[in-house]
Every structure is written in C-alpha cells, then in structure tokens.
Specification:
The complex is a heterodimer of chains A (about 260) and B (about 290). With about 260 residues, chain A is an all-alpha fold. Chain A is about 85% helix and about 0% strand. Chain A is globular, with a radius of gyration of 24 Å. Chain B has a single domain, classed as MetI-like fold. Classes of the chains: A mainly alpha (about 260), B mainly alpha (about 290).
Chain lengths: ~260, ~290
C-alpha cells in the first residue's frame, strides 16, 4: 500500500516534469530564444554595466531636470491611484456578495472591473495616446483604469473577508443600507484598503515608467531620451533616482502598514 | 403653568450634558495614521491635477474622442496588417516568453528563497539577499530589459533575462515568506533525528509550502504575460505586444488595436479562471 503511494507520487512528479520540459522546449522554439546566448550575455551585460552604466560628475548637472520629471511621474501615479480607489470602492460595494444591492448589479460591476483589470496599462496607454497625445493625462488615465480594475478585485475580497458577520448583526438591529456601509463596512475594511492603495502606488510608479517610454512623457521618456542617444551615464542616473524614489515610498508604506494593520 | 416651568428648568439642567456628545471613537495611533494618510493622499492628488502638464489639451474633446475610439475599437475590430493565425501565433509567442521567464525565475528563486528565509540560514545571509532583491525589484522591468538589450541586442534574449530578473526578485520575497511560516519545531525535530540541510528542505520545507509556492508562481505567470505584452511594445521582444505597438504608433489603426485587445483579454481572463480553479483544487487537497 505504502509502496503504491510512493510509486504513484513518483509517477505524477515525473509526468509533471515531462510536461514542463515539453512546454519549455516549445516556448524556446517559438520565442526564438537562444539559450546559449542567453547565458553567455549575462556576464557580458554585467561587465558592460560596470564599465559604462554609472552616473558621472557631468551627469549630475541634469539632476534637477530629472527630479522634475520624477515628481511629475510620482504625482500622476498617486492621483491615478486615489481616484481609482474611490471608483473601486463604489464598485466593490456594489460587487461584493455581502453588500451588493442585488445579484444583477453585483455581476455587472464585477464584470466591468474584470475587463479593466485584464487590459494591461501599456495597452491602455497606446489606446489613449490617440486622443490625449503626449500630455500627462494619457498616463493618468491608463494608470487610473488599471488601478480601478485591480483595486476593485482587492476591495471586494477585503469587504467579503472583514464584514460578513457585522453586516448581519447590523441588519438584525434594523440599520439602513447606508448606515451599515458607513458605520461598519468601510471603517472595518479601511486599514486593509489603505494597505492595498499603498501597494498600488508602488506598482503604478513602475508602470508609469513604462507608460512614459511608450507615450513620451514623464521619467520614462527622460530615460529613453538619454538611453537612445547613448548617454548611459545620465540614463543610469535616472535609474538610480527611480530606485531611490521607489525604496523611499516602500519604506513609508511599510511604516503606515505596521501602524495601521 | 408651574409644571411647565419645572420642565424647562429640568431641561436647562440636562442640556449641557446632552450637548456634549459621548465620544465613541478614541484617537489611537492607527486611526491617526489612517486619517493623515488619507488626507495627504487627497492633497497630493489635488496638487497633481493642478500641476499636470496638459499641453493645451481640450480635455472634454479628448474624452469624447476617446469614447468614439473605444466604440470603434470594441465594436468594429478588424485585422488589416496581419492574419488571424498570425495573431494567434504571436499570442503564443507572448505566452512562451511569460512561461520561460516564470520558469527560470522560479528555479532561481527557490534557491535564493531558501537562503533568504531566516529560519533556514543565518540572519546575515538572509538580510543580504533580501536587500539585494528589494534593490532589483525597485527597478522597473522595462529598464532591466533595456539595460540588458545593450549587451544582448534587442530581442527575446534581452527580454527573457530582464523579465527573469524581476520575476526572481518578486518570487524570492513570496517564497521566503512562505518558508518562514514553517513551524520551527518541525525543523528541530528533523535536525534531532539527524537529517541534513537538504533533507530538511526537501522533506519538510518545500512540501509544506508547495501550495503557496504554486499559487504565487501562477500569479507571477499572469503578471509576466502582461509584462511580456508591454515588453513587446517597448523593447522589441516580439509577440502580440509588438503588433499592438505597430498598430498604435505606425499604422494608427484603432480597430486593429481593438482586435488585438480582444485576443489579450481572452487569454488574460482564461488565465484568471484557471488560477481560481487551481486555488480551489489546492485548497480541497491541502
């Protein structure tokens, strides 16, 4: 019996590894990924990076302009996250199983959020580029849609997790719908929601860099400009500035999370 | 008359007490932090809207034209510059990129995650790895890809390495946290019975956190699919993202973007459904 169990386990492990291997080979073939080149270029990249990719004294003169763009990008990310969170809260309350008005609106609001979440921010940026051009609003709306979709899912889960029994208790005392929402659901899920919002801001700053590259605005554009003109010292300064900003925001949000949760 | 007077005087006596509302909510540290976080975020957002670089854009008109674009995109999608089979093939290329990076990332991250878990190594090694991983994670994926592209050339090689970098940093954090949740008693019991480090890893640590690892890895696969599309667009990694970039920036064909979006949406929702079923099954078994 026991031998059987181990035999079975071994067989399923082997099968799993075989499938993994086949899928890997297929992936390598269709993506035209060169395995040898992949491994050999890693040390080459490190070597090149150590030789060229660091900020020099001259590149520091560009620092004020870079910081300017960085602040613009940070503000876009924060504004997109907060407005997205407000919308997401509305949709999450309508979409959550404990607080929804009825099943019909529940599935509609969750469906809308699913569509927004699964269209990537890069795709949104390219769509919005047609009408908004190279203004900050392209990035803002792309991040707004992405944050809205993601936060709705997160908020729905938070509301379901936190407030099942308290909603029932308040309903039993005869409290109205809005007093249940404002007195129980929102206060009890607020700490968790803030934690999600902070996570979203961190993610959005990284996405904003990508969107900037695609749409020609913000810090991503600055990087691209110096990268394409082979000014690697300034480009590396941009990277350093982004790292510092993200680590700073991460530590702030870790502090808030510890205090709140 | 007298009774009425008595009533008013009683009311006057009660009044100050009635007016003083009973404080139900006390001001704790957490509520102060919550409130100040919300206020700061709101103020920053308002400031952001004021300081945006609008570039003489007529916002109302732009919003209207976006709606028109969205309508054209989703209601009249077509493929002009390539065929349906080509698009399907490119979707698989993107999925392949996502798979390769997740696989490479997961393999490397298991080892680094073991070294980063505080209960399996010493504190110094752990914090060293966690610190460098946080550093790698702070750099956006697209910048990693572009940095590697200088040495390896634009294409799938640079994309796979750059995306693997980010996947590793993400998965190391997730894995090491689930390793650290393992009860110390289990490790001690195995150590007492004379098991060596590798035996502890393969008989206790990995089996007990396998469910977490699988669901984190699959989540990363979903993320990598989205990232692979973006890398196709921004760093010439190929796949459906590159077609989308061409449709957007060269052909300026909103209807073709619509068709590609449908492809991407279908795969992404499919992956999400698979993930949900996966999790349910794992919960039943575990």
């Amino acid at each position: 019996m026991q031998a059987d169990y181990f035999e079975k386990k071994k067989r399923s492990t082997r099968l799993f590894l075989a499938i993994l291997g086949v899928v890997t080979v297929i992936s390598i073939i269709i993506t035209e990924y060169n395995v040898v080149k992949g491994f050999s270029s890693l040390p080459k990249a490190v070597e090149w990076g150590l030789a060229n990719f660091y900020p020099t004294q001259e590149s520091l003169t560009k620092l004020p302009a870079i910081l300017d763009k960085l602040i613009e990008t940070l503000l876009v990310s924060i504004a997109a996250t907060t407005t997205g969170a407000v919308m997401a809260l509305l949709f999450a309350i309508l979409g959550s199983n404990t607080t929804r008005v009825n099943a019909f609106f529940g599935s509609i609001s969750r469906g809308i959020a699913t569509i927004f979440r699964n269209i990537d921010v890069a795709a949104w940026a390219m769509i919005l580029l047609f009408s908004f051009g190279q203004s900050s609003l392209t990035g803002y709306f792309a991040l707004f849609f992405g944050s809205f979709g993601f936060l709705t899912r997160a908020f729905v889960e938070t509301i379901d997790e936190v407030s099942g029994s308290s909603v029932e208790a308040l309903q039993a005392t005869g409290a109205g719908y809005f007093s249940i929402i404002f007195q129980s659901v929102i206060p009890s899920s607020l700490p968790q929601m803030i934690s999600w919002i902070l996570f979203m801001i961190e993610t959005n700053i990284r996405s904003a860099t990508l969107i900037g590259l695609l749409t020609g605005s913000g810090i991503g554009f600055t990087f691209n400009l110096y990268y394409k003109s082979l000014n690697y010292d300034v480009a590396s300064l941009v990277v350093v500035v982004i790292i510092v900003a993200i680590l700073f925001i991460e530590s702030v949000s870790n502090y808030v999370r510890r205090a709140v949760l | 008359m007298e009774a009425n007077e008595q009533l008013t005087s009683a009311k006057q006596l009660l009044d100050p007490q009635l007016q003083k509302k009973i404080r139900i909510k006390t001001l704790t540290k957490s509520s102060v932090v919550i409130r100040s976080t919300l206020i700061i975020l709101a103020l920053l957002s308002i400031y952001a809207f004021i300081s945006f670089d609008y570039k003489q854009l007529d916002v109302g008109e732009a919003v209207l034209s976006t709606f028109a674009n969205l309508k054209a995109m989703f209601l009249e999608p077509h493929l002009k510059h390539f065929t349906f089979t080509h698009a399907l093939y490119q979707v698989f290329v993107t999925l392949g990129l996502a798979f390769l990076t997740t696989l490479f990332g997961a393999i490397i991250a298991v080892f680094l995650g073991l070294l980063a878990a505080e209960n399996l190594t010493n504190k110094r090694v752990s914090s060293m790895i966690k610190g460098s991983v946080a550093f790698i994670r702070a750099v956006p994926t697209v910048l990693w890809v572009l940095i590697f592209a200088v040495a390896a050339g634009l294409g799938s090689v640079a994309a796979v390495i750059g995306m693997t970098f980010h996947s590793v940093s993400y998965l190391v954090k997730a894995y090491s946290e689930s390793f650290e949740e393992l009860d110390n008693g289990v490790i001690e019991a195995l150590q007492a019975s004379g098991a060596n480090w590798w035996q502890i890893i393969f008989q206790a640590v990995i089996p007990s956190s396998l469910t977490y690892m699988i669901s984190w890895t699959f989540l990363r696969f979903e993320i990598n699919f989205a990232v692979a599309i973006a890398m196709g667009a921004a760093a010439g990694a190929g796949g459906i993202g590159f077609d989308m970039f061409m449709a957007s920036n060269f052909y300026l064909d909103i209807r073709e973007i619509g068709a590609i979006t449908y492809f991407v949406l279908a795969i992404a929702i499919l992956l999400e459904m698979v993930a949900i079923r996966f999790k349910k099954k794992l919960k039943v078994n575990g």
